[in-house]
Amino acid sequence: MEELPSSIGCLSSLVSLYLKGCKNLKSIPNSICELKCLEALHLNGCSNMEKLPPLYGLCSLKKLLLGGTALVEIPPDIVSLSSLSDTPIEELPSSIGEKVPPLYGLCSLKKLFLDGTALVEIPPDIVSLSSLEVLSLSDSPIEELPSSIGCLSSLFSLCLNGCKKLKSLPNSICQLKCLERLFLSGCSNLEKLPPLYGLCSLKGPYIDGTALVEIPSDTPSLSSLRRLSLKNCNRLQKSVSTSYIAPIKYREECGEYGYELNFCNCLNLDQNARGTIMADALRRIKELAIARCVGAFYPYFYVGLPGGKIPEWLSCEGPGNSIATLFPPGCFNNMFLGFVFCAIIEFKDPGFRVRDLHLICQSSFKNSNGYREASFASEYFCLENTIESDHVFFWYDGRDISYLDWLKQNCDMENEASFYVCPDVMDTDYMTKWEVKRFGFHLLCDKVELNKCNPYICREANFLEQFKETTNANNKRSREDFYSSNINGNREETHPKRLRQNFFMEDYFSNAQDGINYDATMVPSSSSCEFAPKFYKFL
């Protein structure tokens, strides 16, 4: 089709006009402005359309799709379309110009997509878009945003992916109380972020591939933060603790809770930053495990960062991708919440580009009462790049906790257990390009409840708080050193088939009145308690 008849203006009841992909269509008759009931006009893919007719008469128009056209300008009378709510103006040629027409009349506009355009600035009158919820400017040469963007009180999502000339964001961005998603991936010249303290709804800043050297210090004030993605930030050196973020509050109407901390390919992270990330991870995982026990439908946690060392706080770890061990009686009492898993991955092919990584731990438990299997899967680690060093990945999966009841019912028995971590991939060639160098797990327990019933369990219960106090006192030890000395006691060589010395049985005792005779030995402790029981089990 090359043209529409002028008589189309007589279709007084026409609600939708769908012309998507009409590549020979060059123009639309002026009579289209007579379509008072028209609500949707689809022109995306009309690659030869260079000009639009006047639009002022389309008083009911809510959706205008112009992606993939050859338009050289956006009609200035677009501001008269007071009902317009969805305008994806994307994939337009550079001839569209470097500016958009005035926007002051589009009071109902909810979505504005200007991806791939030649825009270098946004008009200040964007403040008039009081209903705007989504603004996307990806892959445009825009250099800055107007300070008036802070007045977009309804803005839910701001996408600036691939804006390589963007160097900064205005401080007024902290006024966006409804903003949940901030996409800055690929903004390779973005070296610094403004204060973020006012973004109380922000769940996931995507800051991958930027030039950031450090994360803003007010990041912990983001009470809704659930995802922090900074992969491929090669200049990033420092992180801030997210341990001060408000804990998860379980709500029955929203059963899913989760966190992602993606620091993959952030090769310049210092040891303090890596210790911070791991400490925060353990705290969040315990929160999620507790939330799962009170009914949260799908709590999950996963984190990735460069490194070749297993965290010291794991209960058991060893070389390779499998562990077989024996849990003594009393491990799986009512305070047991589940497992967290950790793997060191070596990527053998330096030129191999990894998009997604999905890890699954297959496990089995056996005692005199029977046998039970369980599977613990990570979410997909979104990497989308060549991985340049060994990486640490750890995860918690709370989808299926039926195994918990079975283990607790058999708490007074020895439990043989095996754990095997493997990739969730179908391509066998892919499996040859990476290897699990070390693998481990940690038993989670509700230490708050444990402390109420056993005074010996005070040693580790508040180690994060102890660390904060130590930091506030200007203690110069790194977090890694702190955890090594304050949590693990005397360091020992690990073995893949035994529980670590830092597998404290006091973490899992309910109390001395449960009728179980625990085989514990009293050993010196570096904590405030003079002695604390440790359990040693060798296979």
Give a short summary of the structure.
The chain is α/β, with parallel strands linked by helices and 539 residues long. It is built from 7 helices and 24 strands.
3D architecture notes:
Residues 105-187 form the Disease resistance R13L4/SHOC-2-like LRR domain. Keywords: Leucine-rich repeat, Repeat. InterPro entries: C-JID, Leu-rich_rpt_typical-subtyp, LRR-SigEffector_domain, LRR_dom_sf, LRR_R13L4/SHOC2-like. Residues 305-444 form the C-JID domain. The chain is built from 7 helices and 24 strands. By secondary structure, the chain is of the alpha/beta class. 12% of the residues lie in helices and 24% in strands. Strand 23 (521-524) and strand 24 form a beta hairpin. It folds into 3 domains: 1-96, Alpha-Beta Horseshoe (Leucine-rich repeat, LRR (right-handed beta-alpha superhelix)), CATH 3.80.10; 111-246, Leucine-rich repeat, LRR (right-handed beta-alpha superhelix) (Alpha-Beta Horseshoe); 316-534, no CATH class. The strands form 6 sheets. Strands 10-11-12-20-15-22-13 form a 7-stranded mixed sheet, covered by helices on one side. The chain has helices at residues 271-293, 402-409, 428-431, 447-453, 458-461, 463-472, 479-486; strands spanning 16-18, 40-42, 63-65, 86-88, 111-113, 134-136, 157-159, 181-183, 204-206, 227-229, 256-262, 298-306, 316-319, 322-327, 336-347, 353-357, 359-367, 370-377, 381-386, 391-397, 415-423, 434-445, 521-524, 531-534.
